[in-house]
Amino acid sequence: MTTLRLLPDTDSPLDHATALAAFGDMLDGRVPDAEAAAFLTGLTVREETAIEIAAAAQALRERMIPVQAPANAIDVCGTGGDGSHSLNVSTAVAIVVAACGIPVAKHGNRAASSSAGAADTLEALGLDLDRASAIAEDTLGTIGIAFLFAQKHHPALGRLAPVRRAIGRRTIFNLIGPIANPARVRRQLIGVARPDFLPTYATALRLIGVDSAMIVAGDEPLDELSVCAPSTAIRIGACGDRTERITPADAGLPTYGLDDLRGGDPAYNAAALTALLVGAPGAYRDAVLLNAAGALIVADAVSDWTDGVALAADAIDSGRAATLLSQWIAA
């Protein structure tokens, strides 16, 4: 293999054109593995800039297999990497928000740093991942939800899988998952596992372009709004351009310990999600309600946290969320 373009030095921030070309070369397999590994590791050590994150996302989006989604569709997705091994909050949030009448194009993958990712848990619930991706546009239109399995929609990432495994730590490609949604959604609730990184990520999202978004992190840190500690949220676009601090009490919810959200393998997490949808109380339910409230604010379905929690709770308690999951599995 020959290097068609010498990768730039990562000591200094890259401009957009340089970064876009570098990520394109890596995704197209034009860079030797050792050189790609050194480049990605260098970015991580130096810390990625907003321009570099946006360029990496653009390069991946240019190579993805897209799907069509309604204009008001939303995604709820985290970057992962918080090390909490918690239950699948964003997966449950996607089901609850869809049951509130908001189309959800859920982007996700198998676990990278936990025991059960969105794909693993949905598969344990009975969702056929291959079929779910194949009929994503149909289910978005009929029942208002789809799972966009990253492995199916981002084949270019497969070329870098050996490199990322060899590196053995997160790279910029872990950060760009939420902003490389194959449905090109323009409304998003995004969780980031590093509270100090929220402003950088928010700038990257502005560069990519959204209509309405909220980027959140729990103080623990968690890559979601936390019911165990305060959280920080940066709002972008139609839901308001501002930074705010949120506690569970702000949404009328109690505070829990982090162990109350501890998950397990896919079967364990699937059982917990099933119990949640039939009314099981506790930390998992309240974490889902809080994050669903954030998504509903982004979707302009509610204007405040308590109304969002109430709407999400009704979607569960009425049985609509459980029915939607059953319909999705049977589709």
From TrEMBL:
Species, as recorded: Sphingomonas prati
Chain sites annotated for binding 5-phospho-alpha-D-ribose 1-diphosphate: 78, 81-82, 86, 88-91, 106-114, 118
UniProt key word Transmembrane: no
Domain Glycosyl transferase family 3 N-terminal: 13-63
InterPro entries: Anthranilate_Pribosyl_Tfrase, Glycosyl_Trfase_fam3, Glycosyl_Trfase_fam3_N_dom, Glycosyl_Trfase_fam3_N_dom_sf, Nuc_phospho_transferase
Cofactor note as given: Binds 2 magnesium ions per monomer.
GO CC, one annotated term: cytosol
Protein name: Anthranilate phosphoribosyltransferase
Annotated HAMAP family: TrpD
Uppermost EC category: transferase
Molecular function as annotated in GO: anthranilate phosphoribosyltransferase activity; magnesium ion binding
Gene3D superfamilies, alphabetized: Nucleoside phosphorylase/phosphoribosyltransferase catalytic domain, Transferase, Pyrimidine Nucleoside Phosphorylase, Chain C
Protein's gene: trpD
Superkingdom of the source species: Bacteria
Pfam families: Glycos_trans_3N (PF02885), Glycos_transf_3 (PF00591)
Function (record text): Catalyzes the transfer of the phosphoribosyl group of 5-phosphorylribose-1-pyrophosphate (PRPP) to anthranilate to yield N-(5'-phosphoribosyl)-anthranilate (PRA).
Domain Glycosyl transferase family as annotated: residue spans: 72-321
Residue stretches spanning the membrane: none
Residues given in the record as Mg(2+) 2 binding sites: D223, E224
GO biological process: L-tryptophan biosynthetic process
Binding site for anthranilate 1: G78, N109
Assembly and oligomerization: Homodimer.
Annotated binding of Mg(2+) 1, by residue: S90, E224
Substrates-to-products reaction catalysed: N-(5-phospho-beta-D-ribosyl)anthranilate + diphosphate = 5-phospho-alpha-D-ribose 1-diphosphate + anthranilate
Binding locations of anthranilate 2: R164
